[in-house]
Amino acid sequence: MFRTKKPKFRKSKREKVPTIIWVLMFLGAIFGLFLTRHCSKQLDEYLIVENIELEQQAKSFARVSFEVRNRASFKIKRRVIVRLYQGNLQLGSKMIMARVRGKKTAGYFVTINFVKPLYEGEKIDEISVRFYGI
For a tag site, which of 45, 85, 86, 127 has the least CB within 10 Å? Predict the structure, then answer.
């Protein structure tokens, strides 16, 4: 029926990438990581965590509320990690994505399940709300 023409070049032939291209790609990757890390730290200066409160506490979970205020004029999206401590022991943690429009304040509620249940008389000593960076 129909015949196809075979290509005139070999498929196994490979050209070697010059070393200068590899070096430039490596330097570009390092510069990109540095720039990403620097920009993330700059964004944290525009965001403020306020009004951290323990709303509800039970034996096996706790509910925490907090507000994130954006002082910039553009929308910022950052990961926020909430941790609960009893002395040196971390009872539990949860990470959420905070999306805050420019010049606005957004409120969040987080329910955290404990690693070990609290007994009668035990309480939460510290609530930590921080931005989770690179």
Answer: 45
